């Protein structure tokens, strides 16, 4: 039975977000419910257990479909490949007790979603995002009334992130009801019924120990998470009540729309809030992993009809204070206090999102687990064949029905190892520990295996390189390197145009700003209130000359107001005034943007050529401008548009860019491993290309083609142009030399070219030239001036081409891309954050190949463990079926030895092997159901079957063999007499005590098959323990080698030792030494054949490539198919050509966001 979404029965929650879910409405039906209860009783709870595992079945059987408005039960389903269902009961809330008259309440908020929620309770309650900037100031500026707050509290609930410590009994029940332990319980009951007392007891002890350790770990995590959010729920805050003034209350009483008053000093934010007056400096490291303080400014009182988030575009986060972050500094404006309107509460906040991601991590690697379950189904089918065989054999020999049933069911417990899917995670556990030792922390362990499949890595250039501020600033005024910058507008711009603060005695902020400010030798006085003419006393930042500063004619400069850097606008600006002087505005940002805002007569005629000269050499270039602000409005009342217009161009700030020492070797290593590297940055495109060339992303012999897309003025169409970089020559830049058109075509023909485009061009291509986007991405290496949302979109587009994408960047600007990528790596000092699945404490891209190496090792380890678990159960299964032919089986201690002494110990130690230090130019297989892996399993099953059948048959042909006398092979009469009491009882000799130990398992076939199958388990463990090319050689895993040697020693000891008591306990019988040597010979042949086949066939990569070529196998990956098409397309790429779109643009703004999370994209520091 499945879902058939009807109009009112179905809806989608959190559309387009990471936690997107389908919701279905159901109504409980009494008669169905009664029948189900009867079914629970008749099935002794088995039906209830099944419904516990499959909640969707429970709902489908108990309920009927209905509209969401009528539903009392809802079924939630994830929209990923796993399609996990969960059942929730609908809770109805009543607001009538808080509303004297509905018309009274609606009169105050007629367009409020809360009013609509009163009329239609099924409506999802969210904050009023449709309000304009001015509406937020007007409606919430004076706070909510008590009545409004009470209604909102009932609808929204308390402002708590409630993570209770789960009681031990609940954890215990949940763990015990795991299908694995239910299967174990079934198996144990069966073993007790078959008198496998010791074995069943040992399994019970192991299971209890496993349950205890799991419950302890879960309880520990529950307590840790509870403590993480506990402080959030108990904060005293000050709110402004409409007509009632200020009021102190606990943070869990806050509701969306409340007016929060932020006092001086450090404050932990208990909710998400929009800053509506004043300015704040916030530490967002808990969310982004970046410990750089972030400046927040108040929401402007813009008078327009656009909703506030649309008006602010990507920069709306500059006005939002996020829950869980710490306000480290507040600056009030002329209105006296710093105010913020509560935006989101509880789990809807940024911190709530962090907690939710920890509580419900997104499952990964669906195909791997799907293949594991398919393989498990194959083993169940295999077991079914064994069951039929068992029933036939025992029934034909006249065994009792009960005995036949027990033996048949026993086949399932042997053939189907319930821990098989769990074997896929063994490599992950040890890999996570190794990564932690290397300073790489992981909050999503499921992604480790995915790292082994990465074939494309995007880098934010800022994280790949570091910026050095040279002694020489070059602008339109040249000056000598050994002298400081002379006093003037440029100097003032460098001194004040930044977002730096003094925090814990150090200047903190964007590294570029820090370098720039340090070069002035001025200091920041951020400790006291300052008297500003016309505004009274206010908290403002003052910069003053330091001890080493050049002489300046002023005491200092006060920074009155700032508009922080905007990745969308590509600039920042401040309003400052010399102490005793007049206010001025200073702007810094992308040179081409700054020049557009300046008066034309102030921009030098050679501006573009100078800009290209420096950017093409890899320098970081920043444009500077200023303007005088004459009286009138106070600085805080000026809009950004008023400040950033009619400017005077000051010059270009040139900063030298040097690659980190490890950057080039890392990129070369990735390139040698055939892992594509792509630069995704917010910097100038020419600078980005130069850095890409210096770093080795673009080889010296390869061509760079600039892709420029523009909207055609006055129409809905757009144009796209391809230009070779070498054709953009300028007289000052001699290193860009032209080459012949023949040379260009030759290089392009061999595919040695790279596309470079800006974020603006990328956006236009995505809208107007959607069909060209995959072709451009296939050879796109440099993406410059990319906004955070465009980075997310780019990663998603690469994924659509079937690339496994890694993203390496900072936790602030790149967070959307880090979350969307298969493996996001944040370079941060923090141990872990919600910013990305992986966090490297070392700010170096060297962590990328390290993570890929470990991911590959973890993936191969998982496959090795999977193969071993499958072979071990199959070997045991084949041995038991052979013995069933003679109505025999393995004994208690024989099973115990194989399961505990052999398999459990191997399972623990096999995964200790570390990653191979070199990245090879191909990836490990990503699927379990792949020809090499299946062939390996099938061939080893055949080898095991052949050896066991050979031993089983040949032992019966031996001259000393006897079915009735298990001591016929022993030559000593005394030995025969001494052991005669352990015979099968057919002689009638021996006392009662000895007869109790004679359990009917002893036979020559049993001894032969058990010894062969036990040592065979060691053989497959050794053969499957792959070393190179993805893991270190097996001999480096000392523990595993010692374990194998020890186990082999014990097995050989059991084979050759004639110790009566030991043999009696292990249900073994004495055999001639020649037969024991023969068994060793069989095992040696099996080892040699198995090892040879594994190395010469299974691991023979050239052979598999030849087979692929012979059978015309083509990759299913989209990017490989596209590569093949473009290789045969002589017209691609079209150089020096311009295309026009002939259709209306595709609306993709909604998709450009990729992963839209309110926590991130805090400040794009690439200018």
Note down, in words, how this protein is organized.
This protein is an alpha+beta fold and 1167 residues long. Helix content is 43%, strand content 17%. It has 42 helices and 38 strands. The strands form 7 sheets. It has an 11-stranded mixed beta sheet with strand order 16-37-36-35-17-30-34-33-31-32-38, with helices on both faces. Strands 18-29-28-27-26-25-24-21 form an 8-stranded antiparallel beta sheet, sandwiched between helices. A hairpin with a 6-residue loop joins strand 31 and strand 32. The two termini are 55 Å apart. Residues 1-5, 100-111, 118-126, 462-482, 531-537, 727-747, 971-998 and 1143-1167 have low confidence and may be disordered. Its EC number is 7.2.2.-. InterPro entries: ATPase_P-typ_cation-transptr_N, ATPase_P-typ_cyto_dom_N, ATPase_P-typ_TM_dom_sf, ATPase_P-typ_transduc_dom_A_sf, ATPase_P-type_domA, HAD-like_sf, HAD_sf, P-type_TPase_V. It is a multi-pass membrane protein. GO terms for molecular function: ATP binding; ATP hydrolysis activity; ATPase-coupled monoatomic cation transmembrane transporter activity; metal ion binding; P-type ion transporter activity; polyamine transmembrane transporter activity.
List the helices and strands and how they pair.
Blueprint (H helix, E strand, L loop, with lengths): L9 E4 L7 E8 L1 H13 L3 H8 L1 H8 E3 L7 E6 L6 E5 L12 H7 L4 H7 L13 H8 L5 H11 L11 H9 L2 H15 L3 H34 L5 E6 L3 E6 L8 E4 L4 E2 L3 E6 L1 E5 L1 H4 L5 E4 L10 H5 L7 E2 L4 E6 L6 E7 L5 H10 L6 H31 L4 H15 L10 H12 L2 E3 L4 H5 L4 E4 L1 H4 E4 L20 H8 L4 E3 L2 E3 L2 H8 L3 E4 L4 E3 L3 E3 L2 E5 L11 E10 L4 E8 L4 E7 L1 H7 L9 H9 L4 E9 L11 H4 L4 E12 L3 H10 L3 E5 L4 H11 L7 E9 L6 E7 L16 H9 L3 E6 H10 L4 H7 E5 L3 H13 L4 E5 L5 H6 L2 E5 L10 E3 L6 H38 L7 H18 L21 H26 L16 H7 L12 H6 L6 H21 L13 H19 L3 H6 L7 H26 L2 H10 L7 H10 L10 E3 L8 H4 L15
